[in-house]
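In this section we turn from sequence analysis to structure. A common task in structural bioinformatics is to predict how a protein folds when a small molecule is present, because the ligand can shape the pocket around it. The inputs are simple: the amino acid sequence and a SMILES string for the ligand, here pyridoxal-5'-phosphate. Study the lines below before reading on.
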Amino acid sequence: MTDSATNHDPANLELSPDTMQAMADQVLQRVLAHLAALPEAPGCGDYDGIEALCRAMREQAPEQGTALDALLAPLFDEWIPRSFTTNGAGYLAYIPGGGIYTAALADFIAATTNRYTGIWEAAPALVQLEANALDWLREWMRFPPQARGLFTTGGSSAMFNAIACAREKLLGVEIRRGTLYVSSQSHHCITKAAKLAGIAHDRVRVIAVDADYRMRVDALEQAVAADRAAGLQPFMVFSTAGTTNTGAVDPLEAIADLAAREGLWHHVDGAYGGCFHMVPGLRPLLAGLSRADSLTLDPHKGLFMPYGTGALLVRDGEDLRALHSASAGYLPENQGEFYDPAQYGPDLSRGFPGLRVWLTLKFFGAARYRAALAEKRELAVWAAEQVARIPGIVLDAPPQLSLFAFHLESAALPTLAARNEATRELMRRVTGRGRVMLTGASVGDRYLGRVCVLSFRTRRADIEACVRYLAEESAALLAEAAAGRRADP
Ligand SMILES: Cc1ncc(COP(=O)(O)O)c(C=O)c1O
C-alpha cells in the first residue's frame, strides 16, 4: 500500500485517513492471525538455519519506501516465528512475560498522540494517569503514602535507580567506602547495575544461601561486621522476592530487621514475585516486602505487560526526588503537588509507559488480576505435586510462588555430571515436544530443571501437558540410561 499524497510530495510524510485505516487493518489482521496460531506455535520457535538467516538479513538503509504488506509478510511469516514464543501459553521458561492486548492498544495511542510525559506541564492529565497507576502499585505493595515510584524499561533499570538512590543518600561522595550485599542467587543485573551506579565489583559481597536457596541472614550479618571492621561502610542489601533460578523468597522480615539495625538500605527485588503481593491470600508468602526501602517490580512479568515495563517504588519518595530532581532555564518551573516523572527518574523525553499499565488495569480491574495471579500459583503448586511423583525426579525447590525446580536422579545416573546432563536433556526433550518451553539453570554445581508459571495465557491444560511430557520424557531418558549401563562392560 502506498499513499498518493506522499508520492506527489516526497517531503510530506503524512498519510491520508484511508491509508492509515487500511494500514491499521493490515496490521490487525496479521496480529489476530498470529494470536490465533499461538496454540500451535512451537514453544521454542523455529531456529533451523537462524544464523544464515540473520546474515542474509543484513542490508543497507533503504533509499526508497516499501509497501507495508511487503514488510509485514516476512516479519510475521519468517522472523517472528523464529524466536521464543514468549507470549504463548506454553512459555514456562525463564520468567514468562506478558503481551496483553490492551497494552498494545495503549502503546498505539501513546505513539500516535506522542504526548510528552517527561514533565507534568506538558500533559498534566496524562501524567496523572501514570501517577495513579504507580499509586495502585504502591497500595498493593502496602508502601506508605509518601512513597513514590517510576516506570522504567525493566527490572535492571529499576535496580540501577535504586542503587543510585541509596548511594546518594547514604554515601554522598564517599562512594569507594560503600559495600553492597547480594546473595549467590540474586539476579546478575544487580551487580551490573551496581557497576553502572559507581559501586565496583570489589565492593559487592555475595552472601551464601541456605538449603532452600534463601539468603543466610547470619552470613549477611558476619559480612557486614567484617566490612565495618575493615573501615568500610555497608550501605545496601538486596533481597529477592522470588529468585530466577528456583523461585526462592529470601527471609524478608529478618533482612529488614538487620537492615534497620545496621542502617542499611534494604531493596527487595520483586521483579518476578512482587506482583503476587496484590493477592491478599498470598501476601504471607512475601511477609516483610512492605518494609523495604525500595522495591523492584516488573509489570512486564507479573502484570502481563509487554516488555519494556519495569517499575521502582521508593519508600520515602523524597529520596528518589533528591537523586533526580533538576531544573533548567528552558524548562517550566517545577511545582510540588503533582507527580513529575523527570523529577523522579533519569529520562526527560520518554515514552508513556503508564498508559499501558493504566488502560489495562482499568479495563480488566484488579479483581481479575488477582484471580489470574492466584491461578498461576495454584497451577504451579499442582504441577509441582505431580512432578514430585514422577519416578526419578527429585524436587529441589517446591514453589514458594509459581516457580519450582527439580533434577533427575537414578542408579542409572551414577555421577553428578550424568545427572546434570540428563536433567538438561529432559528440558530439551520436553521443549522439543513443541507445546511448552522449559529452561533450566546451573545452581552451584547442579543443573536444575525448572517450570515457571506466569503467563496470563497459561491455563490448566497447558500445565497438564507439561507434566505429561515431563513424565514421559524422564521415563524414556532413565530407560535409555539404564540400558546404556547394562550395555557397559
Ligand atoms: C528476579 C529477577 N530480578 C531482576 C530481573 C531483571 O529484570 P529485567 O529483565 O526486566 O531487566 C529478572 C529478570 O528475569 C528477574 O527474574
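The chain is about 45% helix and 10% strand. As an exercise, try to locate the residues that line the pyridoxal-5'-phosphate site and compare them with your own expectations.
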